[in-house]
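TA notes, week 10

Several of you asked for a full example with nothing omitted. So below is the full record: structure tokens for the whole chain, then the designed sequence directly under it. When grading your own attempts, check the secondary structure regions first.
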């Protein structure tokens, strides 16, 4: 296919896709009005969570957008390939375009669902399944082309310009995070913490200060979980206004949906920056691409990106800060000069990220001084600065600390002293973040057990960049432990919210394990936990109200499964700091898996990964099926 022929073919498919999407939108709107279907879901579908209006507009606009926007991304990716690309890459593009054209037939399914809405009694979940199913199929086509044409080792000859590879990764990530945002905006109310930022932003858009004039009415547009006669009270505490200011243009353009799309853009930028960082550190292209995709679609990261909180911006700034630390060896003071405002922005986004920002800044300062004056002088300088700050804080009364930090630290230390033992808060915090079914990684994203196993391997093989992440991360976790060990992230929070800001960067620790296990059959050790995590993410994207858990309560998904089986879930899956067999069993299993992945990561990576075999894929499907069956059996009445 010649260059001009490819341009004409791509433009033709783009125009035909746009025409089909517009036609489908008009047909859906016509059928919706013809049958007099409601503008809100019927009873029985979490009415306090689902948006009580706008269903007709969602069906008319979101479904055609889910069909056309991936086609637009595919067309751009096709044009990014060089004119002199070989026949194999051109065939990959033609296959992707053919598969994409076939997906427009799925819009007929949406029309049929509208026709049988009255038969179903309530087609809300069926419509969500159709929407996310279409997005999933389209995403799979994009990911396949991204891998075959840009990312896999065999396609590295086509990566003549790394920026084009990063643009392709940005486009695919934008589809992965951006399109489900429409369903999230329709199917889930903003949480109480999100409503605070949205309410402040709403006031800014209206020309007021960040204190709204009539909060009891204004917050109903995005926080419809509250009753109409219930007043809205923001919780006490210092809420930094920078994040509210940053999301103001997106909110002014498209309300809450505009902010969710803005966060999707930040996550797409994160995908490209994370990939560039890993490859810049010498990680193999295949392992870097796989690690990037898996950590970004893990439930704690994906769900945090769907909440209007500073976490998405914090993830991006952390990876950018790590890239700046790598640049200190070339241009020390320039990189440090950019790192300082970046860390200041982290603190202004959310006060809880201040320890992470200070850790990044301390590592950057140490590296800059080490290059100029040596390691000993750099260490003495940092210790002197830390001692001066400690003495200043000790001498100054806590009430005089900025941003109310003194009162907060005093209260946290008082709670720590009330614990039975000095180590009890640490045990509660660690067990909660790793094992709790609501906030831990084991239940929602066991993939990060590979990262824990690969941590030692990464420290051995890439010591300096691994320490760049590990040291600020430990400082952040220690500070979070002081203030959150007794409550973790609080009520109605998605899993792993406290860890979410650190998790994308742990792709560095995940990569060596992925590279070492890229052999036939050994790959099952990767894709069984990864497949479970992806299924968990997808299912709780379809039913997003099940992702929000309460401290000390059963996981909503496990609770819903247990309710359908007529069996209580308490005692069968681990809860926070509860003396129960499930917690000890989970700890033993997690420890054994971490040791296994550590040993596997120490093995040398193969020269080239082989193709998947049919029996491997069948074994993976069987293993995932048995995993789901075992989960249901654990909750069944016969299990004790």
């Amino acid at each position: 296919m010649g260059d001009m022929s490819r341009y004409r073919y791509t433009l033709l498919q783009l125009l035909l896709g746009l025409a089909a999407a517009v036609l489908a939108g008009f047909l859906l709107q016509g059928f919706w009005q013809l049958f007099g279907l409601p503008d809100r879901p019927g009873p029985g579908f979490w009415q306090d969570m689902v948006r009580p209006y706008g269903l007709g507009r969602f069906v008319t606009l979101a479904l055609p957008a889910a069909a056309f926007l991936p086609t637009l991304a595919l067309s751009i990716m096709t044009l990014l390939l060089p004119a002199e690309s070989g026949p194999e890459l051109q065939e990959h593009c033609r296959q992707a375009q053919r598969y994409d054209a076939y997906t427009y037939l799925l819009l007929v399914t949406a029309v049929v669902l509208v026709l049988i809405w009255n038969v179903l009694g309530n087609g809300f979940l069926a419509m969500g399944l159709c929407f996310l199913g279409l997005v999933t199929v389209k995403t799979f086509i994009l990911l396949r082309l991204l891998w075959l044409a840009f990312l896999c080792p065999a396609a590295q000859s086509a990566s003549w310009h790394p920026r084009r590879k990063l643009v392709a990764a940005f486009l695919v990530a934008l589809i992965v995070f951006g399109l489900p945002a429409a369903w999230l905006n329709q199917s889930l109310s903003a949480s109480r913490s999100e409503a605070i930022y949205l309410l402040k932003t709403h006031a800014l858009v209206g020309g007021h200060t960040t204190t709204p004039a009539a909060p009891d009415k204004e917050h109903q547009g995005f926080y419809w979980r509250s009753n109409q006669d219930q007043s809205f009270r923001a919780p006490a505490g210092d809420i930094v206004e920078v994040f509210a200011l940053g999301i103001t243009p997106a909110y002014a353009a498209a309300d809450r949906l505009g902010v969710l799309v803005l966060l999707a853009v930040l996550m797409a930028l994160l995908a490209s920056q994370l990939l560039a960082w890993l490859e810049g550190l010498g990680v193999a292209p295949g392992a870097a691409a796989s690690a990037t995709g898996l950590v970004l679609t893990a439930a704690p990261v994906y769900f945090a990106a769907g909440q209007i909180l500073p976490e998405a911006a914090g993830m991006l700034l952390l990876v950018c800060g790590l890239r700046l630390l790598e640049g200190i060896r070339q241009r020390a003071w320039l990189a440090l000069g950019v790192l300082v405002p970046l860390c200041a922005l982290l603190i202004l986004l959310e006060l809880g990220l201040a320890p992470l920002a200070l850790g990044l800044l301390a590592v950057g300062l140490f590296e800059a001084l080490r290059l100029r004056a040596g390691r000993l002088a750099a260490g003495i300088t940092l210790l002197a600065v830390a001692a001066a700050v400690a003495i200043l804080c000790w001498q100054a009364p806590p009430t005089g600390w900025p941003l109310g930090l003194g009162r907060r630290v005093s209260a946290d230390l008082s709670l720590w002293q009330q614990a039975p033992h000095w180590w009890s808060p640490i045990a509660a915090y660690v067990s909660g973040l790793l094992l709790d079914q609501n906030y831990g990684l084991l239940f929602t994203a066991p993939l990060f057990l590979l990262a824990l196993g690969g941590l030692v391997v990464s420290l051995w093989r890439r010591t300096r960049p691994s320490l760049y992440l590990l040291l600020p991360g430990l400082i952040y976790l220690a500070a979070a432990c002081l203030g959150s060990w007794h409550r973790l992230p609080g009520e109605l929070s998605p899993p792993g919210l406290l860890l979410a800001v650190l998790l994308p960067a742990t792709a560095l620790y995940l990569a060596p394990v992925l590279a070492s296990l890229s052999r036939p059959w050994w790959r099952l050790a990767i894709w069984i936990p990864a497949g479970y995590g992806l299924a968990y993410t997808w299912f709780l994207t379809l039913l997003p109200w099940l992702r929000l858990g309460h401290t000390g309560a059963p996981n909503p998904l496990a609770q819903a499964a247990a309710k359908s089986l007529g069996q209580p879930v308490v005692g069968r899956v681990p809860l926070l700091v509860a003396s129960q067999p499930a917690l000890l069993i989970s700890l033993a299993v997690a420890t054994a898996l971490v040791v296994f992945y550590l040993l596997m990561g120490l093995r040398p990576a193969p020269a080239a990964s082989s193709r998947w075999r049919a029996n491997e894929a069948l074994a993976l499907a069987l293993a995932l099926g048995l995993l789901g069956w075992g989960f249901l059996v654990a909750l069944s009445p016969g299990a004790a």
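Confidence is low (pLDDT under 50) at residues 227-239, 575-579, 636-640. Use that as a sanity check on your answer.
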